[in-house]
Structure formats: structure tokens, C-alpha cells
Write a structure and sequence with these properties.
The structure is a single chain. The protein is an alpha+beta fold. The chain is built from 31 helices and 28 strands. The protein has four domains: about 130 residues, Calcium-transporting ATPase, cytoplasmic transduction domain A, CATH 2.70.150; about 280 residues, Calcium-transporting ATPase, transmembrane domain; about 160 residues, 3-Layer(aba) Sandwich (Rossmann fold); about 210 residues, 3-Layer(aba) Sandwich (Calcium-transporting ATPase, cytoplasmic domain N), CATH 3.40.1110.10. It is about 45% helix and about 15% strand. The strands form four sheets. Strands 10, 11, 12, 13, 16, 17, 18, 19, 20, 21 and 22 form an eleven-stranded mixed β-sheet that branches. The protein has an eight-stranded mixed β-sheet with strand order 8-28-27-26-9-23-25-24, with helices on both faces. Strands 1, 2, 3, 4, 5, 6 and 7 form a seven-stranded antiparallel β-sheet that branches. InterPro entries: ATPase_P-typ_cation-transptr_C, ATPase_P-typ_cation-transptr_N, ATPase_P-typ_cyto_dom_N, ATPase_P-typ_P_site, ATPase_P-typ_TM_dom_sf, ATPase_P-typ_transduc_dom_A_sf, ATPase_P-type_domA, HAD-like_sf. It holds the Pfam family Cation_ATPase_N.
Length: about 950
């Protein structure tokens, strides 16, 4: 292992662009490392010197900028104008400046700004935390062992392992490669994949042709290899053009855009109301222009929903954090809204519907099927035929092929798991180990032709010593003399595909021609195993003379060895999760690359209708129109490729479905990107799939999708509650001021002619109401629990605005009810006492009480009790306590109000009871109206 050293991060030589043209020895010398990687201590020192391996965002918002942005809004400008107007009045002849009102308006504006800043800042932090959670991992050599680390911890000198599906997280020079191909389109613009090899290229080679380098932001689409990191972070090629590949930014959600548009419409509406009310007062009364202006500004203050955008963003961010706790990582906040509308989920089988814990249970060789005992990764077990235990030599050629044509490996004793690698390949290693094969000393590999979804097979070329297990080797020849090392090609893959590349089949006495009868017998056994819910792979081998021969030559005329059938049990709760989704109006479709018989067997076990199965081959024969009709009745798609999944997605979307699509492979990227909600697997998913997705399942469990849909619906409910609450409260305040001034102008013309008496409520009062009721109580709605039976509803119509007809009707009706009861309280007090200040105080307190109680009225429509959300209980209690503090302490002087007597409270109580009674009646009417 390379001794600990300190690389100089400020040395320009370290960052010169000649890595591609130098020998590997020189590259290692320059990064002060070797093929054994770094020690943990040295890596930590280099991380301190070079900094995290990340592309720093150029548009990050500082806290100061975020705070100032709280006041950059047209509606906030209206409130500032109201404060300045309060001071400006004192400059007019005959008027005194209202310093108290101005100070309070500015204070409340500042408090609102702080509140909005705290919410936005927390939302930014939540979003950043989600980004950090979704950062890819890298596999490196540290202290001589292969370990997985966060990609931000990569440093120059690290030796990294690359394989199909990995996103490349640092610029690196290849050490070795086997069929390695990379997609560099994000960096070079070239659409075709690039073959990679370690050999140096000339110094003047352009970036797109540097075949021995891999770069940040690209991805491995085939093969595997190792490389040494030469640049990280902002020193990478991507870092040099960082503005072009910023980390994925949170897009403004449709609802946030709707909220912003709503604010603008409210602003224009307020201006229109001011003009109307000013015209009425000036034409029909003797009110002064200044009184008219103050009424207009007060009306504007009542209409401003200051906290709406900030609370919406925070609710989405907090909801996303809760979803992470349920193992669903939301990479974009907008997906929360889409989740509420999803009506079809297209899911993979392996690892999502099943446990992804493969165990070989059957081995087929020479016309006989053998049972294999043992489960999981335990390497002890027995082979039996018809209940009789037999020696492993009976199936040795099949076991050997499964172990050699394999990229899994046993993990070191210090690791948390027994094996590294794909679960299918791990199962093959375990079965070989049960047969006595030395899985820790594989033969030297000369070449690999990697598996892909198109090829449906993998082949390797190896130099091997004859196994001591038996005298029959894979190609049917007798063992070669000790010391010789025959070169052989091994293949594994879909049985039918493997058979297509075979000319012979191995029997106990040696290879014989693969006749149609023998082929039919093998395929019949394959179907029999698949009907037992086993995933079946075929195996083949042959001796070769030229390892560098073309792929077609290497993979033709193989000798078929046999089959291995492995079982991956369904997840315990998946059948219930699928049933829950169907109850929620969500169709569930399984799309798998497995044999149709296996797909049917697993599908039947978890609740799918096997009669509706469709294969990829049948799908290819269909036109787009035929597929659009077929997808409405098919629940199981078998032997499908990623390209088939894209067609399935397009057919469903053409039928106006909102589709959630799962995926884990590189080629699943298009389907994930184009689906309404792309769902990547967190455990077995490739980095490319994760980066193309909207949501990552951290546990790969379909049940988590069900839980995420429920959580998403709950989040959307909470936003609807808040919007309903805020807009109905503001509508009530606007109508109270608007109608109150009009009514007062006619009933009390002399009283309402002056600038002070013309105000039903002062701007300060309205700002205070908005501050205490739109603050903590409204925010507490963001953590409301989900309603019972939330998955018993149909999905939300994606074309329906959050401000639907029912909500608009509710907002307007509540505004009318608040106006009727509130002005009843106001004018009763005004006529009975003749004190405007006392009437204003009653109305001021009545609105605070009604608005916080309105919270529970809204929540009751979701069958939620008051005490189901302790945060809301606390927020309401604190709001009422603060209101009492304002009423019964010297603070009332600043608000221009009086302490209330028991008689005053009784008047408020009567108005409150009337309001609740009318509200119940209106809700009953709306239930009947909108249900019909």
C-alpha cells in the first residue's frame, strides 16, 4: 500500500491536462498513489486539502438575500405604503403624525419578514438535506479493502471501481477495463457511447477522444473497470464549466406558480376594490379624501396573504422529510403534487415485489432435475434427486459455469454483508460453494462480454486449471494434465437465448448434438421450473483457441450445460400494498424481464391476474393504437426490455393516465425521466437511474410506493387546508372592511365621514390578525396527520386546480359568514354603547377567535380531531393567549383598543355561536351540492 503522504493541492502540476497522454506509472507518481489505493488517514488528509468532491452552486442564496427577498413583493409594498402614510398624515395641516401606528406596522412587517425568512431558510435546508441524501456513492480501495463511500469524499489518488450503471463522480485515468463503455453526452454532446481502454493517447487528443479517461457527470453503460482519481470537485472538466451542469434545482411547483398568480390577482383586485369604495364614499358621503385613502389601504392590508408562498414551500419540504423517514426520498418537491394524481404504477418484480434474496433451489443437468437445500448466503447445503442425496459432481459443470461467469465476490470478514454483487450472481456463487467449488480463487479472466438488456446474456473468457472436483470439465473433455491452463469461454443468460448460441449439449458421457428434440426437452424443463416461480438461467461453455476473436465467434457453437432455477420470495406485505393501491383507484402493472411463466407465478402470488400476461415479443408485434387498448387490461408484462417499458409508459399516458414508473438500470433512464413520477431503486438501482428519477425507494420495497402515495396525498391535503383557511380568513377581512364601510357610510354618515371613524378596523389590527392567525396555527397544519382512509379515495384529477370549485365556494361563503356575524357584533356594540373603539375591539377579537376556530372546522372535513395534532393545539392556545395579552395589558394602547368586559365577551360568544351554526349549514349544503 502506498505510504501516507500529503499531496499539494496548490501545485499547478497536479492539475495540468496531460493525464491522458502519460503512462500509468507517471500518473500514479503524480497523484502520489498506487494500485492499492489510499489509507483512510491519507484520504482524510487529502479531503482536508482538496475539499469535498462537489460542484459548488453559483446561485446559492445567502441568508441576507433571503431575508431581503421577503419584502420584494407588490403586496408588501402596499403594506409599507400604509406605514409611510401613517407618518405622512402628520405633515398635513390640522393632523398629527401617528407614530404608534407607523411603528406597529413596521414592527409587524418585520415580524412577518422574519417568519417568512425562517420558513424559507428551513425549506432551503430541508431541500439541501434531500440533495445530500440523494448523492451517489463510489466504491474505492481504502486500506486495501473495497468499501463504499459518499462520492463527495473522493480525493485524488483514490482507486475507484466502475461498472454498468455507475455515475462517474470524479475525473479519473483508467487502470484496467473489461468491455467498458461510457455515455459522455452530458459533457461532450456526443450521443454515441464511447469505448474505454487504459492505453495512453497523444497529448493533443481532444476531450471526446480521450479513451483512457472517465469524467464527472458521465455514466458507465457497459462493462467494468478500475481507475485512479486525478481531479475532484471544481478542478474536474465539469467544474470548469460548472454553470452548465448545476446540481438539479428545485423547480417552481404548479401550485406555487398558482399561488404567485393568486397574489397578483389579489393585488389587482384590491386596487379595484379601493377604486369602488373610494367612489362610493366620495360620491355619497362627506368623507375626506384622506379618510377614503386610509380605508383603501386598510382594505389592501386585509387582502394580503403574506405567508402563503413561504408556508406552502415549507409544508412541501417538511412533508418530503417525513417521506424520507418512510424510505421514500423525494428528489423534487413538485413530485408531491404528482403523487396525489398517480393512477397507474408500473413496477419491476425483482427486489420491489420480491425480497431480492435469490437462492438456487433447482439445478437441471442431463435430463435430470436436482434439488438444492439451504437458503440465503449460507454456503452449506445438499444436492438431491427424487429425495436421495447425491454428490455435487453430478451437476459440477453447471455450478462451475455459474461461478466463473460471475462478477459477484465474497466480502471480507470485516464487511457488514457476506457478498458483494448482484443478488442473482451471489446466488450462483453460493450454489457453487455448496458444491465444493473454490469461489475465492476464480480462474484468471482474459475477457468479458458484459450482460445487457438487449443481449440477455453474459460471457467471459478465462484461463483455468482443471477443478479437482471431478474429471469432467465444462466442455465435455477429460481433465487436462496438471500444469496446463486451457482457455474457455463461459456463458450464462436467458435459457432460450443461450440455447440459440449452442450447437451441442453436455450429457454424462460428453457433448452430443443439440437436436430439436433435446432443445424442446430443455425448454420444457425451463417452463416447468418457471411455473414454480423460479427465475431460470441457462449455462454454456466451450474451449477456444483465440481469446481475441470477434464476439460472434466466441459466443457461437457453445456446449449447453444446464439450468439453475432460483427463488426470490415475494415481500411479506406486498400483496396488501397492491390491494391498498387498487382501493385507492391506482392500477398496478408488473413489468419484468423474467420468463412469462415465472412472471405469472409470482404475479399470482401477490394478487395479479396471470391471464392478462403479455410478453415483450407480443408487444413488439402491436401497433401503438393496439397497445393503447391492450394496456388497459394487462397486469403482467414479461420478457420486457427498457425500450418496451417506454412504449408501455407512452401508451398509458396517451390514455390520460398519470403514471409512476419504477426502474433500476441505465436503460431505464428514458422511462423514468418521461414518467409523471419516476421511481428509482435505492439499493440495487444504478446511479443513472437515481439521477433520472423523481423519487428513490431507499428500501426497494413496493410497499414504500404505497406509503409515499398516502404521504403525498396527506401533504396535498395539508396544503389545501392551509389555502382554504388563509384565503377564507383574508376574504372575510376584506369583506368586513368593504361592506362595513359601505354600510357604515349609509347608517352613520356623519360618523364615517372622518378619517378615523371611517375605519372598521385599522391597518395595525388587520396586520396583527394576519400575524397571529396566519403564523403558528397555519404552519401547524403542515404537520397534520393523514386522514383515515386516505387511500380509499380516487386519485386527484391532475387537470384540477387546487383552488377547485368547492374550495372557491367555501372561501367565499366563509368570508360572507364572517362578514355577517362580525359586522353584527360590530354594529350591535356601536349602536348600544356609542363607542367606536369598543366596537372595533369586539370585532378585532371576534375575528381572531373565529379564524383560529375555523382551523378545526376545516380539519373536521377530513375527520381529524383537534387533539390529533398537538402542535396545532399548542399554536391555537398560544395565539389566544397572546390576544388576551394585547387586550389586558398596556399593549392595548398601541393597538388603540380597550379591555373587554363580560358583557362584551357575551356579545362575541353569541356572534360566534351564530357563525358556527351558519357554517354547519353551509357545509351540509356544499356536501350535498358537490357530492351530486
Amino acid at each position: 500500500m502506498k505510504p501516507d503522504t500529503a499531496l499539494d493541492a496548490d501545485d499547478p502540476e497536479q492539475f495540468s491536462p496531460r493525464w491522458h497522454s502519460e503512462s500509468l506509472e507517471r500518473v500514479f507518481e503524480r497523484v502520489d498513489a498506487d494500485e492499492t489505493g489510499l489509507t483512510a488517514d491519507e484520504a482524510e488528509r487529502r479531503l482536508d486539502a482538496f475539499g469535498p468532491n462537489e460542484i459548488r452552486s453559483t446561485d446559492s442564496i445567502s441568508p441576507l438575500t433571503l431575508f431581503v427577498s421577503q419584502f420584494r413583493d407588490f403586496l408588501i409594498y402596499i403594506l409599507v405604503f400604509a406605514a409611510l402614510l401613517s407618518l405622512g398624515v402628520g405633515l398635513l395641516p390640522g393632523y398629527e403624525p401617528n407614530y404608534a401606528d407607523a411603528a406597529l406596522i413596521f414592527l409587524i412587517l418585520f415580524a412577518n419578514g422574519v417568519f417568512g425568512f425562517v420558513q424559507d431558510y428551513r425549506a432551503e435546508k430541508s431541500i439541501q438535506a434531500l440533495r445530500e441524501l440523494s448523492s451517489p456513492e463510489a466504491t474505492v480501495l481504502r486500506d486495501g479493502e473495497k468499501v463504499s463511500i459518499d462520492s463527495t469524499e473522493l480525493v485524488p489518488g483514490d482507486v475507484v471501481f466502475l461498472e454498468q450503471g455507475n455515475a462517474v463522480s470524479a475525473d479519473a485515468r483508467l487502470i484496467e477495463s473489461s468491455g467498458l463503455e461510457a455515455d459522455e453526452s452530458a459533457l461532450t454532446g456526443e450521443s454515441t457511447t464511447v469505448s474505454k481502454s487504459p492505453e495512453p493517447v497523444t497529448e493533443d487528443t481532444v476531450l471526446a477522444d480521450r479513451s483512457n479517461m472517465v469524467y464527472t457527470g458521465t455514466s458507465v453503460v457497459r462493462g467494468q473497470g478500475t481507475a485512479v482519481v486525478v481531479h475532484t470537485g471544481m478542478e474536474t472538466e465539469v467544474g470548469a464549466i460548472a454553470t452548465q451542469i448545476e446540481a438539479v434545482e428545485e423547480q417552481e411547483t404548479p401550485f406555487q406558480a398558482e399561488v404567485n398568480q393568486l397574489g397578483k390577482r389579489l393585488g389587482y383586485g384590491v386596487i379595484g376594490l379601493i377604486v369602488v369604495i373610494a367612489a362610493v364614499q366620495l360620491i355619497l358621503t362627506a368623507a375626506s379624501p384622506l379618510a377614503v385613502l386610509l380605508v383603501g389601504v386598510t382594505l389592501a392590508v386585509a387582502a394580503v396573504p403574506e405567508g402563503l408562498p413561504a408556508v406552502v414551500t415549507l409544508t412541501l419540504a417538511l412533508g418530503s422529510r417525513r417521506m424520507v423517514e418512510r424510505d421514500a426520498l423525494v428528489r423534487r418537491l413538485s413530485v408531491v403534487e404528482s403523487l396525489g394524481s398517480v393512477d397507474v404504477i408500473v413496477t419491476d418484480k425483482t427486489g420491489t415485489l420480491t425480497e431480492n434474496q435469490m437462492t438456487v433451489e433447482r439445478v437441471y443437468f442431463d435430463g435430470e432435475t436436482y434439488a438444492v437445500s439451504g437458503t440465503g448466503t449460507e454456503t452449506t447445503g445438499e444436492f438431491s434427486r427424487d429425495g436421495t442425496v447425491v454428490g455435487p459432481e453430478a451437476v459440477e459443470p453447471v455450478l462451475r459455469c455459474g461461478a466463473v461467469c460471475n462478477n459477484a465476490e465474497r466480502a471480507p470478514e470485516s464487511a457488514e454483508k457476506d457478498f458483494y454483487g448482484d443478488p442473482t450472481e451471489v446466488a450462483l456463487l453460493v450454489s457453487a460453494a455448496k458444491g465444493g467449488y473454490d469461489i475465492e480463487s476464480p480462474p484468471a479472466r482474459v475477457r468479458e462480454i458484459p450482460f445487457s438488456s438487449d443481449r440477455k446474456r453474459m460471457s467471459v473468457v478465462v484461463n483455468e486449471e482443471t477443478s479437482a472436483l471431478c474429471s469432467t470439465v465444462a466442455d465435455g473433455e477429460r481433465a487436462t494434465p496438471s500444469g496446463s491452463a486451457p482457455t474457455r469461454a463461459y456463458m450464462k443468460g436467458a435459457p432460450a437465448v443461450v440455447l440459440d448460441h449452442c450447437s451441442h449439449v453436455l450429457e454424462a458421457d460428453g457433448p452430443v448434438p443439440l437436436t430439436e428434440e433435446r432443445r424442446a426437452a430443455i425448454l420444457a424443463n425451463n417452463r416447468a421450473l418457471a411455473r414454480g416461480a423460479l427465475r431460470v438461467l441457462g449455462f454454456a461453455a466451450k474451449r477456444i483457441d483465440d481469446p481475441a476473436a470477434p464476439t460472434e465467434e466466441l459466443e457461437d457453437d457453445m456446449v449447453f450445460l444446464g439450468l439453475q432455477g432460483m427463488f426470490d420470495p415475494p415481500r411479506a406485505e406486498v400483496e396488501r400494498a397492491i390491494a391498498d393501491c387498487r382501493c385507492a383507484g391506482i392500477g398496478v402493472v408488473m413489468a419484468t424481464g423474467d420468463n412469462v411463466e415465472t412472471a405469472k407465478a409470482i404475479g399470482s402470488a401477490v394478487g395479479f391476474s396471470p391471464d392478462s400476461a403479455l410478453t415483450g415479443a407480443e408487444l413488439e408485434e402491436m401497433s401503438d393504437g393496439e397497445l393503447r387498448q391492450k394496456v388497459e387490461s394487462v397486469e403482467v408484462f414479461a420478457r420486457v426490455t427498457p425500450e418496451h417499458k417506454v412504449r408501455i409508459l407512452e401508451a398509458l399516458q396517451a390514455n390520460d393516465h398519470i403514471v409512476g414508473m419504477t426502474g433500476d438500470g441505465v436503460n431505464d433512464g428514458p422511462a423514468l425521466r418521461n414518467s409523471d413520477v419516476g421511481i428509482a431503486m435505492g439499493i440495487r438501482g444504478t446511479d443513472v437511474a437515481k439521477q433520472a428519477s423523481d423519487m428513490v425507494l431507499l428500501d426497494d420495497d413496493f410497499g414504500t410506493i404505497r406509503d409515499a402515495v398516502a404521504e403525498g396525498r396527506g401533504i396535498f391535503d395539508n396544503i389545501q387546508k392551509f389555502v382554504n383557511y388563509l384565503l377564507s380568513a383574508n376574504a372575510g377581512e376584506v369583506l368586513v372592511v368593504f361592506v362595513g364601510v359601505l354600510v357604515g357610510t349609509f347608517l352613520f354618515p356623519e360618523l364615517f365621514a372622518s378619517q378615523s371613524e371611517a375605519l372598521i378596523l385599522t391597518p395595525v389590527m388587520l396586520l396583527w390578525i394576519n400575524l397571529v392567525t396566519d403564523g403558528l396555527p397555519a404552519l401547524a397544519l403542515g404537520v397534520d396527520p393523514k386522514a383515515d382512509g386516505i387511500l380509499d379515495r380516487p386519485p386527484r384529477d391532475s387537470h384540477e386546480s387546487i383552488l377547485d370549485r368547492e374550495m372557491v365556494a367555501s372561501v367565499l361563503s366563509i368570508g360572507v359568514l364572517m362578514t355577517i356575524t362580525g359586522l353584527g357584533v360590530f354594529f350591535y356594540s356601536l349602536t348600544s354603547t356609542g363607542q367606536l373603539v369598543r366596537a372595533q375591539t369586539l370585532l378585532f377579537t371576534f375575528l381572531v377567535v373565529v379564524e383560529v376556530v375555523r382551523l378545526q372546522v376545516i380539519r373536521s372535513r377530513y375527520d381529524l380531531s383537534l387533539f390529533s395534532n398537538p402542535w396545532l393545539v399548542g399554536a391555537i392556545a398560544l395565539t389566544l393567549a397572546v390576544q388576551l395579552l394585547v387586550l389586558y395589558t398596556p399593549l392595548n394602547l398601541f393597538f388603540g383598543i380597550l379591555p373587554l368586559s363580560l358583557v362584551d365577551w357575551s356579545v362575541i360568544g353569541v356572534g360566534f355561536v351564530v357563525f358556527l351554526g351558519l357554517n354547519v349549514g353551509v357545509d351540509f349544503l356544499f356536501d350535498r351540492l358537490f357530492d351530486d
